Amino acid sequence: MARLSYVQAACNALHAVMQQDARVVTLGEDVGRGGVFGQYRGLQQAFGAERVIDTPISEATIMGAAVGMALAGLRPVVELRVVDFALCAMDEVVNQAAKARYMFGGQGRVPLVARMPIGLWRGSAAQHSQSLEAWYAHVPGLVVVAPATPQDNHGLLGAAIASGDPVIYMEHKELWGLEDEVDPTRIERLGVAALRRPGSDLTLVTWSRTLHDALAAAETAQDEGLSIEVIDLRTIWPWDREAVFASVQKTGRLLVAHEAVQAGGFGAEIAAATAEALGVPVRRLGAPRIPVGYAPPLEDAARVTPQAIVAAARELVGAPARGA
Amino acid sequence: MSAIEMSLEHALALYRTMARIRAFENAAEEASKGGVAAFGASLAQAKVRGPLHLSTGQEAVAAGVCAQLRTDDLLTSTHRGHGHTIAKGASIERMMCELFGRATGYNGGKGGSMHIADFSIGMLGANGVVAAGIPIAVGAAHALRLRGGDALVACFFGDGAINRGPFLEGLNWAGIHRLPVLFVCEDNRWSATTETGAMTAGEGALARAQAIGVPGVAVNGNDVFAVDAAAAALSAQIRADGAPRFLHAVTYRIKGHVSVDAAAYRSHDEVARALEQDPLELAAIRIAALGGERAALAAIDAQAQAEIAAAVAAADAAPWPAQSAAYTDIQDTGAERWRD
What we know:
Chain A has 324 residues and is an alpha/beta fold.
């Protein structure tokens, strides 16, 4: 066990995988200097410029070249800076990486991990703050992962590289500095949710940074006598139906909270699937359908807060709002 | 190899590749009649359905370039890619089965004309998106370089592709990383139903490549011997120094954008002039000058026709894929979750 930040945990995981597997390469802007967030610190010194490849600001070719590398036998880890910039490589993700194996009748595989951090990041405005996990979850062929803790950023990155599938790996920009104990020997599996807090009155499903707001909300709610079970989805696709349904069968209610825009967000999919399967009351909580503004009051309008989560939970169980 | 030094044997081999491509395209065209619903047809009769992009008249580019490729060289192709695939050494029968959508096709019926691939011969796939093969070729070249050796990637794309971003990105990338890629701009002068020249500023493909720092040459893309000689020189340079080269092969798209497109937007004169430059006819004249007999070419033509006829018959008799195949080859993680 070691105390590591979210960013260092991922860096260590990648270092270990590159040491074990010569097929693993890393490519993207600034990776040779360690990446703008420090996710690749020390890797080029350790593995050389042929395996830790500095690239031009050419997102389409960063992603497209990774597809070519994968089809030719490598296992690339792709740095795309932030999901907002990864949109410049949408064809390469959606039409190439996600489709090649199927289109070619199983002849080629695209084992790659495309890192495209999501989320609000104080003062970053509309083109550096989005959470677009639902877009990618919608595309057959892709796996979508969103780690919320240093331990998961270690274990899930390793699992993503090992999976053999094209994985959209969405770290959160406000979590880079989060520190916790990390067991580097712990093996994670994709598609498995984590129970973060047991409870009995309702199930709260969340992921990424919102997990930490959800845990704060559950603590507050506990003081009011409302017991919230918190599930960290970790993998958005394939999402862990079994874990969510088992919890909801116990609590009888589902709330999904995420930082992405609520309309068409992935919470809608979980809520709909749960309501269809179990017939229980469900509720979604996400951002309003507005671009993220720069000034703090504007940005805060897009933020899902612990207070909003508690309010949604209260409403779901039919409890009177506090002070009402 | 200069045209003068060209052996009759090599010349006949080039001709044979072109004849097989021509016969394949003609048979595919015939089987696709009525195959695109958007053009008002019922799909009921067509054996080959959906958009079929023919390379008829462009055979010399595929034959000349691929004659210089080895089995361990890789290739990326386009939506108009039958010729490249045949010239790289793919099975014509498995290709035709794929066009017919049958289980015995290269892709088990999952791809069709626009996505044929044969990884066993280094053919990494045709692509339905213009210019999409360029970044893929660049990445595959990284993999070759890590592997060691002097194999290269041949990357075919059309004249329309030079107006897409990946052209700039991919050539720049191959240049700065000195990657073994032979970029082949197969310039048939038409971007779907629009003349490419009217949509292209400046001096065009080769000038753009040279401006980015990728050296190359332009050739008459209907002269298979010229293409072959240029590809020989460029591929030798790539194998020697590992850096990218560019071949601009100017040809002409005899057929419409897709097989059911009558191409009424261009003049009869233009097409008639192009037909006078038929690459097979040009090659036949040169082969005669080398001492080759017409009868030898006629035998090659007949052999190609017979081979294609057998492929069509096999495709026609082959089974459809089981519907259960629609749910496989997608992903390993959550492979059973397609129904959710």
